[in-house]
Design a protein that fits this description.
210 residues, alpha/beta, seven-stranded mixed sheet
Length: 210
C-alpha cells in the first residue's frame, strides 16, 4: 500500500453504450462490477474515493466517499480527475492521486506501485499505464500540484481530452503485460462498455477462477 497516494475510481460516465444507468452496479460474478475494481485498487492506496454524480446513496454498499464533479456539465473523466486531485490535496498526507476507470475488473494489483516507481526521480511528472503498446490515460498517477492547471484546462479552455492534458506535461508510460489464463489472454485494462463486453468479462472471470 502507498500510504501517501490517494486513489479515485472514475464512475461518472453516462454509460450510453450500456443503455444508460450505472454500469458499475451491474452484476459480474455475482457481485457488482464496482466491487471487483475496489477489491483490486483499495489495497494499493492510502484512501480511496468514487467519482460519480447524482444520488450517492446508490453506491452506499461500496463504503467509499462519493465525490460529484467539481465542474458542471458532465465533462468526462477529466472532471473526475480534477475532483480527485482537489479532494486529495485537501488532505496533506497525500502527494499524488492514482486514477482508475470503474469498469475494469481486471486492473493490475501492482498498478500504483509500478506507476509510482516510474516517476520516483521525476517529481511533477505524470505516470500513465499502457498495455499492448497502447496508453490508458485514465489509469495514471497524477501529482497533486496539477490541480490548478487542470481546472484552467477544463473551464477556460473547455478541453475535455485526458490525453491532450497529459501531452502538455512531462509524463512516462509504464507498460503492463497481458495476462495469460489458460487459452485466454487478458488485457488488464479490459473495460466493459456494452452487454457483449460484460458477457466476455464473465467468461474471463470464470477462466481466472477464485
Amino acid at each position: 500500500m502507498s500510504q501517501d497516494i490517494a486513489g479515485i475510481i472514475l464512475a461518472g460516465g453516462l454509460s450510453r453504450r450500456m443503455g444508460g444507468g450505472d454500469k458499475t452496479l451491474l452484476a459480474l460474478g455475482g457481485r457488482p462490477l464496482l466491487d471487483h475494481v475496489v477489491a483490486r485498487l483499495a489495497p494499493q492506496v492510502g484512501s480511496l474515493a468514487l467519482s460519480a454524480n447524482g444520488d450517492p446513496a446508490r453506491f452506499a454498499a461500496a463504503g467509499l466517499p462519493v465525490l460529484a464533479d467539481a465542474v458542471e456539465g458532465y465533462a468526462g473523466p477529466l472532471a473526475g480527475i480534477l475532483t480527485g486531485l482537489e479532494w486529495a490535496a485537501a488532505n496533506t498526507a497525500f502527494k499524488a492521486l492514482a486514477t482508475a476507470a470503474g469498469d475494469t475488473p481486471f486492473l493490475p494489483v501492482d498498478l500504483v506501485v509500478r506507476l509510482a516507481a516510474a516517476v520516483d526521480e521525476r517529481p511533477g511528472s505524470i505516470a500513465v499505464a499502457s498495455s499492448g503498446g497502447r496508453p490508458h490515460p485514465t489509469f495514471a498517477l497524477w501529482p497533486l500540484g496539477l490541480g490548478q492547471a487542470l481546472r484552467h484546462f477544463l473551464i477556460h479552455e473547455d478541453n475535455r481530452r485526458v490525453s491532450a492534458f497529459i501531452e502538455r506535461h512531462d509524463c512516462v508510460e509504464v507498460e503492463f503485460p497481458l495476462l495469460a489464463h489458460g487459452s485466454d489472454e487478458i488485457d488488464p485494462f479490459f473495460n466493459i462498455n456494452t452487454p457483449h463486453d460484460l458477457a466476455v468479462a464473465e467468461r474471463l472471470l470464470q477462466s481466472i477462477g477464485p
